[in-house]
Amino acid sequence: MSGRSRSSRRSPTARLGRSFGLLAVLGVILVLAGIVGLIYVGVATLTTMLLFGWLLLIGGLVGLAHAVQSRGSSYFWLAVIVAALNIAAGVVVIRLPDATAAALTMFAALLFLTGGLFRLAGAVVVRGAQFGWTLLQGVIGILLGVLVLANWPQSSLYVIGCFFSLALLFDGLGLLAMGIGGRRVVGMVEDSRVA
């Protein structure tokens, strides 16, 4: 009887430990995908564009189905227009992934430039406690924008894939750290219960 109650007490912590283990495994998969994406940046860019296009297309179709179901509502036409725009954008992205990557790369470069300029101006005007870091962020943003624009449109072959792969890599590292740390905490809780 005591053995059964002890195993039932361990059951939630064991399940929690397994969940953290699965989180760590997912982190490893994302880290590997990020590394592969950084090695094959052109393929990662094309894959990202195709995924983006299919997400737009599927989202548009789901939105259109939802709009049809809500025919009598006041937002019917707005829902139809948004769904049609999503479908059209999805088709364009899927059919022209290179041109879409070039346009998004230009947009990203302009965001870097404007964000860097605003941070730089804000650091100089405010001169707060984080003056040095804000100034550094502004300079890095401007440099990134200039570097991407200087090689545009060739930079569109690798910029989006590089960013996407880095996002996968850092998200995977975060999940891996959370999974390993969570398993350690669960192990310490189990050890304290046994003691």
Your description of this structure?
This protein has helices at residues 2-39, 41-69, 76-95, 97-126, 131-150, 159-194. The protein has 195 residues and is mainly α. The longest helix is centred in the first third of the chain and has 38 residues, at 2-39.
What is the residue-averaged pLDDT? 82
Largest sheet: none
Rounded to the nearest angstrom, the distance between the terminal CA atoms is: 19 Å
* Helix proportion: over 70%
Which parts are unreliable, with pLDDT below 50 for 5 consecutive residues or more? none
- Proportion of residues in extended strands: under 5%
The succession of helices and strands, N to C, reads: HHHHHH
Radius of gyration: 24 Å
Structure summary, number of beta strands? 0
Assembly of the depicted chains: single chain
Count helical runs: 6
Classification by helices and strands: mainly alpha
Cα shape: extended
What key attributes describe this structure?
mainly alpha
Helix and strand arrangement:
Layout: H1 2-39, H2 41-69, H3 76-95, H4 97-126, H5 131-150, H6 159-194
Helix pairs in contact: 1-2, 1-6, 2-3, 2-4, 2-6, 3-4, 4-5
